Amino acid sequence: MGFVSAAYDPAAAAAQARERLHEEIERVRVGVEAMLDEQQGDDAALRRELEAIRKETRRYVKKRVGKTEKRLGKQIREIDERTSALEQRIEQGEQERKHAEWRIHTNTEAMLDGLLREVRAIADLLSGSPPTR
């Protein structure tokens, strides 16, 4: 899993938003019930309608929060996949760089060894001594 900032945790933000929404719904419901009690006493039909509205609101909120969490989860997975792909590309680039450094070092060493042999051969020719290997 990729990195999610502690400052913005989507699951925590969704839970907090859900809690605030439920508190607001409950506050309104209590207010409506209190108002109904003051105006008409105990009207069963209005209370049933209020309960039905509350259930419908809970169902709607649950559905919307679920869809939002699902979308958010998908976005996080996509970001994780892209992050993994980038990490692989970085690792591959690092391996290629190391191989190129090794190849350059090896080729330079071989070239210098060859030059040294040629310089020794030329020196041997100029000094008149037999060539060294």
What can you tell me about this protein's structure?
Helices cover 86% and strands 0% of the residues. It is mainly α. The model has no long low-confidence stretch (mean pLDDT 85).
Uncertain spans, ≥5 residues at pLDDT below 50?
none
- Helix count from the secondary structure assignment: 2
Instruction: Tell me the number of structural domains.
Output: 1
- What general outline do the C-alpha atoms trace? rod-shaped
Rg measurement, Å: 38 Å
Biggest beta sheet summary:
none
| Helical coverage, percent range | over 70%
Give me the strand/helix succession.
HH
Overall mean pLDDT stands at: 85
Number of strands: 0
Instruction: State the distance separating the first and last CA atoms.
Output: 60 Å
Which structural class do the helices and strands define?
mainly alpha
Furnish the topology, listing elements before pairings.
Blueprint: H1 10-40, H2 44-127
Helix pairs in contact: 1-2
Q: How would you sum up this structure in a few lines?
A:
With 133 residues, the protein is an all-alpha fold. 86% of the residues lie in helices and 0% in strands.
